[in-house]
Specification:
75 residues; 0% strand
């Protein structure tokens, strides 16, 4: 049961990291200090958000994914 959630946690973290690396330079002015501070803040919040989505039922509440549906499709 924990394995599908851990996989969802890792994939969520990876996807959010990619989104952050693409979006932050487009939104933040080209000041290196500002970018560094925003990247640090975003990259520190991504694990917490990924944990909430994968382990605390965030994906189920959004209606996107459920570990029970994945275990049914595998068996």
């Amino acid at each position: 049961m924990a394995r599908p959630r851990f996989r969802a946690f890792l994939l969520t973290m990876l996807a959010l990291d990619v989104v952050a690396l693409v979006v932050v330079p487009l939104v933040i002015p080209p000041d290196p200090t500002a970018r560094m501070m925003v990247f640090a803040a975003v990259l520190l919040t991504i694990p917490a958000l990924s944990f909430w989505l994968a382990y605390r039922g965030g994906w189920e509440r959004l209606g996107v994914w459920s570990p029970e549906s994945e275990s049914e499709s595998e068996g």
